[in-house]
Amino acid sequence: MPQQDRHKNRLIPIEFTFYDKLETLPVKDRCSIVLLTCGNATIKINHCIRLLHSPCVLCLSQYDTIELIHSENLSAKSFHFDPCYIKACLCFDNLNDSIEIDPQYTYDRINLYMFTKHHNHFQGIFSLTPQNYIHINELLLMIGAETFSQSDGFWTCRIRRMLRQLINYISDIYADQRKLKLFDTPESHNPASICAEYIHTHYAQNITLNTLCSLVNLNRTSLNQQFKAQFLCTCMEYLLNYRLKISQELLSNTNMKIHEIAETCGFKYDTYFIRQFTKKLGISPAMYRKNPLSYTAYEGKAIKKL
Q1: Is the separation of the CB atoms in 13 and 35 below 8 Å?
Q2: What is this structure's pTM?
Q3: Which of 48, 83, 84, 143 is least surrounded by CB atoms within 10 angstroms?
């Protein structure tokens, strides 16, 4: 909801969230600056899978579509504003280059491109150095404090000034990262890496090859070709091996029963788990538990006996 100005009878088209979980993005009629301060997440943004690791910042607009797939210890701050808050003449309808505006406002419109001009390899996501993070966090904290305190009749002017500083600072990061070509298909954004990361966080669930294909919008053949080129095995082989790796850790470090370990690691039947474990290691889970130091965990293509 817009902020009610306590000093004047008006609504200000801004919102601030100190503890954002990325579950209500994007915000209608708003551009958003989201600072990931803690944890990590996997999101689908505009049909592209992206892995977010703090600290990072997202510049979003109402045109984006976002689905939170997975998160861990996630915490973020966010500030949402209508483009007209920057300049009264700006709105979502005239942020496109094809619309003519007064030349004196062109600079402000260009600075909003990182919110509105997203494409396959650039989705408004910026990794941050510690120095970047400290500066952006300080500005957001001051904006948030002023948004809620409204210390005097000029509070909106102060926020607008700090918001301009923040956008200019992020714009400089954008320019630097473009020069370094960080938006040219980063390794962590390729389909094989995305599927591997998904397996790491969802191995206990019912994952099928169709699940992974839908995740990265590839057919079964193409995905397995890319996966084998990077990991030397197919997606489902990788999933099985990773589940077995987790099962080894549970066998070594817990008193869980075999059927409990099978279920925890994503095996529907404990008989199937025992059969696959024995086939890969040449020893049953029960025997492995008696002397786990004689066997190695999964590292690479296959589980190998030491």
Answers
A1: no
A2: 0.67
A3: 84
